[in-house]
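Quick review question:
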């Protein structure tokens, strides 16, 4: 082991704490699981509820869910890459717009389903 003065004179490259990288990876996996669940829900709606309020209802909801799932997975990957860069360079993490966008998309799909259910019941 080199003396303390030698290691201070030749410090190694800074390396981020592995815990941050692994936590960022777990977050990416959560985004991917959410995207996969949305895609599976879209496929299920399109397959088992083809006429939801209108002849195009099930297909529209299924397509909206699949597109939202794809967007969620891509947004999670983009967020992971951005956070990895910030962790490696010891920069602050930037607040992203992914979460508000996902909330808006899911809200829009829920509203579409609500309108189609009202049409189905009426």
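Suggested answer, residue by residue:
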């Amino acid at each position: 082991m080199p003396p303390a003065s030698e290691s201070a004179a030749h410090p190694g490259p800074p390396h981020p704490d592995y815990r941050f990288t692994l936590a960022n990876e777990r977050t990416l996996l959560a985004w991917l699981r959410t995207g996969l669940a949305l895609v599976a829900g879209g496929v299920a709606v399109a397959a088992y509820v083809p006429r939801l309020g209108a002849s195009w209802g099930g297909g529209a909801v299924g397509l909206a869910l699949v597109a939202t799932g794809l967007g969620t997975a891509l947004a999670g990957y983009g967020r992971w890459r951005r956070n990895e860069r910030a962790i490696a360079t010891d920069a602050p993490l930037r607040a992203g717009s992914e979460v508000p966008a996902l909330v808006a998309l899911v809200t829009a799909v829920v509203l579409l389903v609500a309108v189609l259910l009202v049409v189905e019941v009426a």
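Why it works: The chain has one domain: 17-121. Helices lie at 4-9, 18-48, 57-89, 98-121.
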